[in-house]
Amino acid sequence: MDLNELQNFYHAQNKSNKPCFVVNITAEHGIWQSENPLTQSLPLLAMQLAATIFVTRAVYYLLRPLAVPRIFTDFLGGVLMGPSALGLFPMFHSMFPLRSIGTVETVAYWALCCHLFLIGLEFDMSVIANLTRTSKKAIHIAIAGVLIPLITGIGLFFLMNQVPGGEYNPAGSVYFGLSMAVTGYPIVARVLKDVKLLHSDIGRMAMSASLVTDLISWILVIIGIAFSNHTIGGALVAVLSTAGFVLFCFIVVRPALAIIISKTSKENIYSENYLCFVLVAISAFATVTDVLGTNSIVGAFIFGLIMPNRILAEAFLDKFEDFVTGYLLPLFFTICGLRIDIWSLFHNKAYLAIGSVVLVLSCSAKILSTLLVSYYDNVPTRDGFSLGIVLNSKGIFGNFDPSARQ
């Protein structure tokens, strides 16, 4: 069998009319016996990973003088890898054949689980426990900043379904609305820290509002994933079982972790065994929530959230963050970019018009909702506008859509 045949770059139909893939892990003889090593799974993944890191890093260093956030440059690099830019060239187009997408997506979503674990680590449970002390203004801004963009996004989704050829799964409306409604609490904290507003009045209000928004977003994501993948009865079982697992983690697992950490560490000195334990635990928690009917990222996030020792959490962030966000996570943005073809918008004026409206509303919906609540709560218009801009920091949730893998 010739591994260089076209059928092995994409797929071949067998007699049962089902796709049959030729997947070998690595090449045995390489180019010396006229075999293309890139037809094998491992060399192809290595090349895809190397190209992705190179492109995303190049975009990051080019835009670094403009103080552009890393998550934006990674996403822009992913779009450039897709059919909107570099994918137009044969070399880059053949770099992501259909037969390799399963492997790339598996690595990408594993990186996403690790990234959500790190986001959970950045949440301070003492802040969450003191939510009752959060000002009513911040709570009002958070609730309006979720509901108004969520409703706007769902409405736009069904408007897009009226365009000829735009019939989509109705379950996608939830994720479309959430992509406009979410706010990334850790991202907001980093932005405020960079501009030295973290301890100002507007900074504290933005932190409180983003924390409440992020918690509401997580609840909506769990519910949305369950109802999009199951019947109503199955969705209720998935939501209730996941809620029970979360309560079990906070009531039982978190105190147990605190005891284990206090017994096995001395003077805040932690061995490399803790890192191995964390990698195993991320996999276990991700598997549990996936089995319960929600999504792997929920379990990874919950495990990061229940970490009881802040010093240990900071140690994990120092050791783990660069590898995940700099080495593995760009693959997730590349997968997102492969689904985006900007040039196709120009072939349909209706899509171009709707895309422009979505682009404007995705930013303005949260700003307008914040301004409305600010006017109601007697917050200065300038502060309300600034809050709306800061709360548009969406983080990874702005790109995540579990239905895209179906």
Automatic annotation (TrEMBL):
One of its GO terms (molecular function) is antiporter activity. One of its GO terms (cellular component) is endomembrane system. Pfam families: Na_H_Exchanger. It is found in: Membrane. InterPro entries: Cation/H_exchanger_TM (IPR006153), CPA2_transporter (IPR050794), Na+/solute_symporter_sf (IPR038770). The chain crosses the membrane at residues 42-63, 75-96, 108-131, 138-160, 172-192, 204-226, 232-253, 274-307, 327-346, 353-376. Residues 56-397 form the Cation/H+ exchanger transmembrane domain. Its main location: membrane. GO terms for biological process: potassium ion transport; proton transmembrane transport; regulation of pH. Keywords: Ion transport, Membrane, Potassium, Potassium transport, Transmembrane, Transmembrane helix, Transport. It is a multi-pass membrane protein. PANTHER family: CATION/H + ANTIPORTER (PTHR32468), CATION_H+ EXCHANGER DOMAIN-CONTAINING PROTEIN (PTHR32468:SF68). Belongs to the monovalent cation:proton antiporter 2 (CPA2) transporter (TC 2.A.37) family. CHX (TC 2.A.37.4) subfamily. This is Cation/H+ exchanger transmembrane domain-containing protein. The lineage of its organism: Eukaryota, Viridiplantae, Streptophyta, Embryophyta, Tracheophyta.
